[in-house]
Amino acid sequence: LEGLALGPVLADCRQSLIVVSDNNFSTTQTTQFLALALDIVTPQPAIALTPIGTYATGEYGQSAAEIPAYDPASKRLFVVNAQNGKVDVLDASNPTNPTLITSIDISAFGLPNSVAIKDGLIAIAVENIDKQAKGQVLFYSANSQDFATPLKALEVGALPDMLTFLSLIHI
Questions:
Q1: What is the pTM of this model?
Q2: Per-residue pLDDT tens for 31-61?
Q3: Angle of CA points 17, 115, 65, to nearest 5°
Q4: What are the backbone dihedrals phi and psi of residue 13, each rounded to the nearest 5 degrees, phi first?
């Protein structure tokens, strides 16, 4: 497993969970997404996971699915595809059948390492092609129809990774 993200709340009020697994650069393994329904089992607190849907990138022998982040307002799942220098954007409005909408091409800036979302704002950590040089964090609107230009780009230290939002951030 490479990453986990909470997905949309299902029609039956269960929470969905998106699991991402890449193929570790192997031609014998598959890059895939798995949507699960979370069931809280009582009387003893426990969690049961039930598969409800999958998405496969169709790319083999590449690192094509790393870090997922879900935006509840747009019902989109954003997944780092470091091998292609992109962040894939999936329609997760129907978690039983997530589909690729588009990809955010980050290759002009470097390679994406991580993605995070807060209130419809996407932050993507981008490492410089020169790993010793400073990286960037790029910001986009989650419901954008055109991801050609970031809303803002901030210079950060080398090899930025593991993004999270604080309440005090103003872009």
A1: 0.74
A2: 788 888 987 666 666 788 889 988 887 765 5
A3: 65
A4: 75, 5
